[in-house]
Design a protein that fits this description.
Elements lengths: L1 E5 L6 H12 L3 E5 L4 E4 L6 E4 L2 E2 L5 E4 L6 H13 L3 E2 L3 H8 L1 H10 L7 E2 L7 H7 L5 E5 L8 E4 L2 H13 L4 E5 L7 E8 L2 E9 L14 E4 L4 H14 L3 E9 L2 E8 L5 H7 L3 H12 L12
Parallel strand pairs: 1-2, 1-6, 6-7
Antiparallel strand pairs: 3-4, 4-5, 8-11, 9-10, 9-11, 12-13, 12-15, 13-14, 15-16
Length: 301
């Protein structure tokens, strides 16, 4: 099979591992920078050109689209869908998961456990919003933030109000969430492929830090998850419409709570911590499921 990987950098660990895994199983793998893809639309057929050549003959496409290029990257993926190339994750599902507020609303509607979350527009409603989220300490998150950027722990009510004022002064959209103290600065990343959690790891924040992201100095170790955590992770990915997802959970006194569903989860941390060939399992999933035109949206969403 001819497989395309949409990635801006073929030397990133995750991209390299997917190339290795695909080629090890006899597939032809080509990395395409989505920002260099030129799309043409006509009544005849949708086309993609890359560095002057027409893209054709691919059986599947693996999107590794960074948050900063979500708009153009999902447009390119949508074009592949219109060309009936099988997408590992569909464009609509990626767009849905990248909108933090929308994704939490969808998870909430389906009864997935979440930290109490607040969102308000008017400054006059700040006090009420903070109260509804349990009061200080509180977590404040920019909707556009990734890898722990734009996430602040406000330990007092005054600090929370100051951060809210600062975010509003920047015209930034943000969420307020309750702080789960009993988690102790740790969360669990469940790597979901299809209807299974194939690997999991616990991430622990560095000393003096509350964010457990590995990019912020957090450490990772293999994690044994419970049946309820496994079920929550699989359901969360399914609600987003993602075939492959990194579902971040936090352990609270009242069960697992979903923090985020990542549509382009990194492979380096999870493979190192779990010892599992996650890239190989992704290629296995594509082999079992990739069929021409086998996409729900076909570029319609």
């Amino acid at each position: 099979m001819k497989i395309a990987i949409l990635s801006r950098n073929r030397n990133l660990y995750s991209t390299k591992r997917l190339i290795e895994a695909g080629e090890a199983k006899g597939h032809s793998v080509k990395v395409l920078d989505p920002l260099r893809c030129v799309m043409t639309l006509s009544s005849a057929e949708p086309q993609i050109h890359y560095r002057g050549s027409k893209i054709e003959g691919f059986g599947a496409v693996i999107p590794r689209i960074g948050a900063s290029i979500t708009f153009y990257g999902t447009a390119v993926l949508r074009q592949f869908e219109m060309m009936e190339v099988y997408p590992l994750n569909e464009s609509v599902a990626i767009s849905r998961s990248r909108d933090k507020l929308r994704s939490l609303q969808l998870l909430s509607r389906k009864g997935i456990g979440l930290p109490v979350t607040g969102f308000a527009h008017s400054p006059d409603d700040t006090e009420h919003m903070l109260e509804k989220c349990g009061g200080a300490p509180l977590i404040l998150k920019l909707l556009e933030g990734t890898q722990g950027k734009g996430v602040v722990l406000a330990e007092t009510r005054k600090a929370a109000e100051s951060v809210v004022d600062a975010f509003r002064g920047l015209n930034a959209n943000f969420l307020v969430q309750e702080f789960i103290e009993e988690a102790g600065g740790a969360d669990v990343r469940c790597f979901v492929i299809g209807d299974k959690v194939v690997a999991s790891m616990q991430r622990q924040a560095a000393e003096g830090e509350f964010r457990s992201n590995l990019h912020r100095g957090g450490s990772a170790s293999s994690a044994k998850i419970t049946s309820s955590e496994r079920a929550a992770a699989v359901r969360a990915a399914k609600i987003m419409g993602l075939n492959v997802a990194g579902v971040d959970l936090i352990r609270s006194n009242h069960g697992p709570l979903v923090l985020e569903v990542n549509s382009s989860p990194g492979l380096e941390g999870i493979e190192a911590a779990s010892g599992i060939d996650v890239a190989g399992k992704i290629i296995d999933f594509i082999e079992k499921n990739a069929r021409e035109g086998r996409t729900k949206t076909r570029g319609k969403g």
